Amino acid sequence: MSKIYPSAARPARLYESVCDDILKRIDRGEWSERGKLPSIRELAQELGVHRLTVFKAYQLLKQSGKAYVKDKSGYYINTGALPSDQTATPAIHSHIQQNPLSDIQRVPVVYQFSQALLDPNLLPNQYLSAYVKQAFDLYPKVLGTYAPVQGDEELREAMAEYLAAEHHLALTPGELLITSGAQQALDLLAKTLLKPRDIVLVDRPTYGAAMDIFRSYGAQLAAVDIHPHGYDLEQVARLMKERKPRFFYLNPTFHNPTGYTVSAEQRKRLVELAAEHRCLLVEDDPFHDIYFKQPPPPPLFTYDTEGYVAYIRSFSKYIAPGLRIAAVAARPPVIGNLLTAKSLADNGTPLLNQKIFLLLFFSDRMQRHLEKLRIALHVRMNIMEEALSGTGLSWSKPAGGLNLWVKLPDGIKAGTLLAKGIEQSLTFVPGTICDPLTELDDRIRLSYSYANEIQLHEGARLLAGLLRSLA
């Protein structure tokens, strides 16, 4: 076992590093479930640290519920008692809890307002097959080889040129990583950046699955309120200074779930604060092209000159969800660490998917389709808003994206409404799933992009009836 040495950045907290090492060894199964941990003297000798350091690490484990003490016997692993019918099942990673958003989206219903995805009928299905055929014609050996771990070079070159032209990003193909969707990008970032008890700043509310990913690596979340005008920058600065977060995960463009968009002025200031407090900004941008009137401001990455932004640009939501293509832009050393994590995760996003996306997304036909798609989604948003008027619900009209963030009438709880909705074959996302504090039970996210126009009318009327029954 390698000795543990204090970090140059945090020399006074060596016991935390020891605690992290113990947690990893528990997860690897080095000690049996509910088994005894080494004595303080033994572990101190093994790691080459003072016994007081190990004592503090064990105390930290005890406070977090990962260990308990038997009087005059020592410290024991506390994994919790397993049900009798599960004693033979494999051990589950101690940080992995649940994914309530996925649980709701898997419920088979007629009126699907929980999926922030496109209705498949809005995709360019008629000519997508032509690009699949073209990919095989141009790259006949595409199924006979793996893609480079970092992503297809031709795609990264085209993406770098596109982002430079669209947003004036100073970016090289070597600073891009192609991932299998934005969710994999988030997982890779969490895997490379986080250790147990690290602080992560997140919007309140925010994307529920992102919080689940960060928690699965043992992170503690600190909430930053987001408003129609953006952020309280004094709150952001205070949290960065006091909590010293590992990173700030934010979604400033057609924010999920609220639909808010942060101004260019605030974006510049956020990057300045990130540099001042040495806090990485993880910018998630899945809806950038889905605007209804004016394009949104450039990404935060545009204003970053010192490497304090990692930018995730996803195309799965509105180009071809089945291809699962996203790009991460970051500077060294972040991009290098991501590349290593990607190699361990899947050794590269499927090359065929990348080639099809390359031909499809950068075509004139696809760019024309995006213009039609924006109109179609704007129409669907208007249909939902009109159908929900007079129900006692309230919301801020978004300028783009796929969702409405809706406030319920007084006295109605999102959890109760969801239970009633599922009985009537209707789902949505309750606000508690989007809230790092799990308190927003008077809010719901309604996605207008997946249901067709008839389902939007009928589902909104059904929702209005459920609200009346609970009033």
Automatic annotation (TrEMBL):
The keyword Repressor does not apply. This is DNA-binding transcriptional regulator, MocR family, contains an aminotransferase domain. It comes from Paenibacillus tianmuensis. CDD domains: AAT_like, WHTH_GntR. SMART domains: HTH_GNTR. InterPro entries: Aminotransferase_I/II_large, HTH_trans_reg/aminotransferase, PyrdxlP-dep_Trfase, PyrdxlP-dep_Trfase_major, PyrdxlP-dep_Trfase_small, Tscrpt_reg_HTH_GntR, WH-like_DNA-bd_sf, WH_DNA-bd_sf. The keyword DNA-binding applies. Keywords: Aminotransferase, DNA-binding, Pyridoxal phosphate, Transcription, Transcription regulation, Transferase. Its cofactor is pyridoxal 5'-phosphate. Homodimer. PROSITE patterns: HTH_GNTR.
